[in-house]
C-alpha cells in the first residue's frame, strides 16, 4: 500500500504535523511528508494530487494555518479522503484555521480535526482507521493502541476521593 501523504503549507507547520507522522509510525503505517503551499505554489496542488492518485495514496493529511486553504483545495482535486489539521498561528491561535477548514462548501468534503498537536495525532489515528477498513493488520494495530489507551486510564483510575 502507498504511504499516507502528509502535506503542509509551510515547513514551519512541521512541529504540529510531526504528531500525525509519529502516530502513523507508532501504528506501523507508512507515510511521507511534503510542503505544498496553496498560496505560494498553487501549481503544485493539482499535480501533487494527480500523483497521489497514480500512487494509490489511501489518505491525505493536510495541515495549514492562517487562511488554511490547503486542505480544501487539495480535496477539490481528488476523491482521496483529505483530513485537515488546523495549525495554530500567533494572532488567532488556530481559530481562523479551524473555521477555514471546517466550513467547506457542500460537495467538497474535508474531515477536520482539532487545532494543533492533538488534532494532528488524531489525523494520523483516523488515517490508520480508514486504512484499517480494508487492511486487517492495521485495524488490529489500531485496536491494540486503543486497548493500551484504556489500560493507561484504568491503571491510573484508582482515585482516593474525599468523604
Automatic annotation (TrEMBL):
EC number: 5.4.99.18
GO aspect biological process, one term: 'de novo' IMP biosynthetic process
Alphabetized GO MF terms: 5-(carboxyamino)imidazole ribonucleotide mutase activity
Pfam families referenced in this protein's UniProt entry, alphabetically: AIRC
Organism encoding this protein: Pseudidiomarina salinarum
Enzyme class name: isomerase
Residues the entry annotates as binding substrate: 10, 13, 40
Catalysed reactions, semicolon-separated: 5-carboxyamino-1-(5-phospho-D-ribosyl)imidazole + H(+) = 5-amino-1-(5-phospho-D-ribosyl)imidazole-4-carboxylate
Keywords: Isomerase, Purine biosynthesis
Annotated coiled-coil segments of the chain: none
Family stated for the protein in its record: Belongs to the AIR carboxylase family. Class I subfamily.
Domain PurE residues, every copy: 2-153
Name by which UniProt lists this protein: N5-carboxyaminoimidazole ribonucleotide mutase
Lineage top rank: taxon: Bacteria
Transmembrane annotation, as ranges: none
Protein function: Catalyzes the conversion of N5-carboxyaminoimidazole ribonucleotide (N5-CAIR) to 4-carboxy-5-aminoimidazole ribonucleotide (CAIR).
Record pathway: Purine metabolism; IMP biosynthesis via de novo pathway; 5-amino-1-(5-phospho-D-ribosyl)imidazole-4-carboxylate from 5-amino-1-(5-phospho-D-ribosyl)imidazole (N5-CAIR route): step 2/2
Amino acid at each position: 500500500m502507498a504511504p499516507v501523504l502528509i502535506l503542509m503549507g509551510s515547513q514551519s507547520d512541521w512541529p504540529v504535523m510531526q504528531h500525525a507522522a509519529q502516530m502513523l509510525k507508532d501504528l506501523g503505517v507508512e507515510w511521507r511528508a511534503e510542503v505544498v503551499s496553496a498560496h505560494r505554489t498553487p501549481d503544485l496542488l493539482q499535480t501533487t494530487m494527480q500523483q497521489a492518485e497514480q500512487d494509490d495514496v489511501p489518505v491525505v493529511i493536510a495541515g495549514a494555518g492562517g487562511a488554511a486553504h490547503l486542505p480544501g483545495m487539495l480535496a477539490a482535486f481528488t476523491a482521496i479522503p483529505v483530513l485537515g489539521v488546523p495549525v495554530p498561528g500567533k494572532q488567532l491561535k488556530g481559530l481562523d484555521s479551524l473555521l477555514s477548514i471546517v466550513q467547506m462548501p457542500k460537495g467538497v468534503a474535508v474531515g477536520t480535526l482539532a487545532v494543533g498537536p492533538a488534532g494532528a495525532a488524531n489525523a494520523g489515528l483516523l488515517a490508520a482507521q480508514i486504512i484499517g477498513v480494508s487492511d486487517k493488520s492495521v485495524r488490529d494495530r489500531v485496536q491494540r493502541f486503543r486497548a493500551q489507551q484504556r489500560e493507561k486510564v484504568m491503571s491510573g483510575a484508582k482515585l482516593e476521593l474525599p468523604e
